[in-house]
Description:
alpha+beta, elongated, eight-stranded antiparallel sheet, 46% helix, 19% strand
Amino acid sequence: MPAVDKLLLEEALQDSPQTRSLLSVFEEDAGTLTDYTNQLLQAMQRVYGAQNEMCLATQQLSKQLLAYEKQNFALGKGDEEVISTLHYFSKVVDECAVGQKAEVKVLAGPHCFRWLRGESSCIFWWLQLNLLHTELAKQLADTMVLPIIQFREKDLTEVSTLKDLFGLASNEHDLSMAKYSRLPKKKENEKVKTEVGKEVAAARRKQHLSSLQYYCALNALQYRKQMAMMEPMIGFAHGQINFFKKGAEMFSKRMDSFLSSVADMVQSIQVELEAEAEKMRVSQQELLSVDESVYTPDSDVAAPQINRNLIQKAGYLNLRNKTGLVTTTWERLYFFTQGGNLMCQPRGAVAGGLIQDLDNCSVMAVDCEDRRYCFQITTPNGKSGIILQAESRKENEEWICAINNISRQIYLTDNPEAVAIKLNQTALQAVTPITSFGKKQESSCPSQNLKNSEMENENDKIVPKATASLPEAEELIAPGTPIQFDIVLPATEFLDQNRGSRRTNPFGETEDESFPEAEDSLLQQMFIVRFLGSMAVKTDSTTEVIYEAMRQVLAARAIHNIFRMTESHLMVTSQSLRLIDPQTQVSRANFELTSVTQFAAHQENKRLVGFVIRVPESTGEESLSTYIFESNSEGEKICYAINLGKEIIEVQKDPEALAQLMLSIPLTNDGKYVLLNDQPDDDDGNPNEHRGAESEA
């Protein structure tokens, strides 16, 4: 090793300029060494910090490997192999089973890996990858970072301290020498001279001692800095060698067979992927090689090949929705038939919902809003149902044929396709558009259509659903009866309201004279209600039909997630029941009180109330419908008001009985009749809104 420059201790006492100049060189070297040591320590601490971060990263990696099993993948089929393999890797990364004798099974589907340690007493050790990183971080801290910190804190700090002491001693010596030099020559005082001489000697001795210590430290620093630079790197190298050596033992000796099997599994998956990709590529080419007419709607409009024997059908159609009295919208939805029902499923929905019961319905092509390929489904009682639009002539006629076949309940027979072929001629007659009003009236006659349908069914030996299983007499509501969840006036009712010579407001507002009972009624009571639904019923002989309708309406709302309800004001008078829009005060519906045949409140949920309406049809028959509401107050109050109104109607025929009834109703201070209630109607919100509770005589 080459010689090291030194400061001569013999020249410390003389303290010549040459010695001071050489000392400044050593001091400059010590300052440079201090700066470099600080930078080197920062770099080593960064390596140590990165190693600690590596330990935390491996722990996080192990947790993420275990978390794969807990992920709720929508398509998790075939993940058992991946889960078991990741579990094993997680153990290698984060778990240590030291000195454990066991049989380890890693289940990976067809690849099953097993290490058996039994009677041979061979003990294997799970070499923990995280433990290796932790051990490496500890070695770096002890053998790399700690020596350089000790060198900085001990050697460099000692040199810096001795430098300060040497400077103080030199200053004291200079001051004492200046004082000694100022002693007078003529008036020499031996006592003062002796004291000053002793002071100079003490200062010189102190300077000599501090300079010797300082020179020795600087000389030793030249050796210590070489050791301080190499010792940490030796520790770093040994730590890395030990880490890689143990890592090689773990991943080479203990995991060779496992990694080989996993690699084989990955390779087999890659082969399957390539084969599947090739199949998909060929299939894609075949699908793209079809004729351009596949993408063009209504490409075969001239001579479409129509299958008229369908008993089920699915596809996209445009549904016509009324948004007002004169405005409509069209919505493209996916429709499909299921048994005797027409179902609708919006895009993105998990399941479809019932749109129309097709049993005994009729379907025909119609002209609607200058749109092509429209057809209308009409209910068995002759009321207009829904209007749909297909995208092509072929789809239009196939939908009409399929609905015709389903409406005749062909799907219930043993051989539906054979029966559909027999009824092919009947299906062809249904696709002819009806433009004449006279023809439309003839085709909309439900009794005649029903007779024709029964005759065709008898000729073809078709057994309808109704005759296949006759309903029992106690049944209140026909199975599959559609439910209406909002109050929307049908087109036929709108036409009935506007018949006559007098023109009425098309937007539904009614003038005062349109409802004379508002002025002349002996009873007026207002309730806040929310419409839940209405449906046709078979009888009005018992209130049980109302309870059954409540059950079915609430169940249907829960099944179809329908929570929106239309709030209205229910005005009970001695002549009618009126539903009034609370915002516009427009009458939404009006029911004659004489047509209300049953009314009842729910026995448990007191807010539920319903009533049955008997309405005459154009055919001479009568239809029964029940309406279900939820009230802010108790339903018994509404029932009491309806009952009182019906009593007033009855007693109006007998003036004496009417007078007795009026006398039984108390008067207010201003002479108005007050409706008798068990308790004030405070639940209906603002009491000012219910001034109709009082009625003028």
